[in-house]
């Protein structure tokens, strides 16, 4: 009994001593070395200035992404990135190489060639008034935003053939880009998310709204009789029974919103089945989507040949002739193509001339020469 009491007594003494020793040793352990992250140079400033995007009053309001508002710094950064081949795998190709300003930001070649000499199978789409594009970018609609769209070409093995890790690293090691990203986004840590945000900001500024059509809407000019006849054909449904001649263009290319595209995907009667390119159906695997492609804008068509997703038409006359008498039947052709029994709207030579005269009103030379859209110094 005495021995047991002694043991308990000693145990009560030793336990506090043992804890004290352990804690003393722990507190004396050296701290792990901290990462030597250099501080932001004092001359760098994050003070983004909102970008005042000007556009015609007859255009609808724009809804900007909450997480990517337009700023002066972001737009200029995006412009620099758009023209810089640094994003490609070998540093030789920029976004602007397939989207040339002189061609309404498309490629005059039927199919663009990537850094490895490989060609795609669809014509590069124009970049016009995409601030109003709600979704469904690319010919097959696979991108749901401009930011999402900009992710694709960098890693596409046929196009820039790079990885985002490599592209971001090159930007991070660049003498100018860390500061530019800090000034635009408040961080110098560059990643793909910030790159595509900047590019998307620049692309949202690519607004075309100074054509003869726009000046007519603003009552600055009066169209010619031929242009006016062409406009009436453009906005009129053909009705054989009522003896009404029309070109039926406005369904997919609405003029009322100023965009001359509905930003939707249609099978416009280019081919019979089976389709050489399934378009949206290639993405969804749904047979009802086969042959559907996004409606391109008709703005600046004179600068953006060739036409259609596969560049099959070289001139606007070929396009007009196709819609007049060249439509092909297929199970997925859009119901809007009402005149399939006649293979088209059956325009007379004079009506074709009038329609072309109106379409000429949609060209905007100031858009393809605007220095704010061109390669920065």
Q: Care to describe what's here?
A:
The chain is mainly α. It has 2 domains: 72-207, Cytochrome c-like domain (Cytochrome Bc1 Complex, Chain D, domain 2, Orthogonal Bundle); 212-367, Cytochrome c-like domain (Cytochrome Bc1 Complex, Chain D, domain 2), CATH 1.10.760. It contains 12 helices and 2 strands; from the N terminus they run H-H-H-H-H-H-H-H-E-H-E-H-H-H. The protein has helices at 2-27, 72-83, 146-155, 164-172, 177-185, 192-204, 212-217, 225-234, 280-284, 316-325, 349-360, 365-369; strands at 265-266, 293-294.
Write the layout of secondary structure elements.
Blueprint: H1 2-27, H2 72-83, H3 146-155, H4 164-172, H5 177-185, H6 192-204, H7 212-217, H8 225-234, E1 265-266, H9 280-284, E2 293-294, H10 316-325, H11 349-360, H12 365-369
Antiparallel strand pairs: 1-2
Helix pairs in contact: 2-5, 2-6, 3-6, 8-11
Can you tell me the CATH topology of the largest domain? Cytochrome Bc1 Complex, Chain D, domain 2
Number of helices: 12
End-to-end Cα distance, whole Å, is 95 Å
Report the uncertain regions.
1-38
Q: Give the tally of structural domains.
A: 2
Architecture of the largest domain in CATH? Orthogonal Bundle
Compressed to H and E, one letter per element, the order equals: HHHHHHHHEHEHHH
Described by the principal axes of the CA atoms, the overall outline is globular
Oligomer: single chain
Question: What Rg do the Cα atoms give?
Answer: 30 Å
Biggest sheet descriptor: 2 strands, antiparallel
Total number of strands: 2
Strand order of the largest sheet: 1-2
The CATH class label of the largest domain is Mainly Alpha
Into which percentage range does the β-strand content fall? Answer: under 5%
Assigned CATH superfamily of the largest domain:
Cytochrome c-like domain
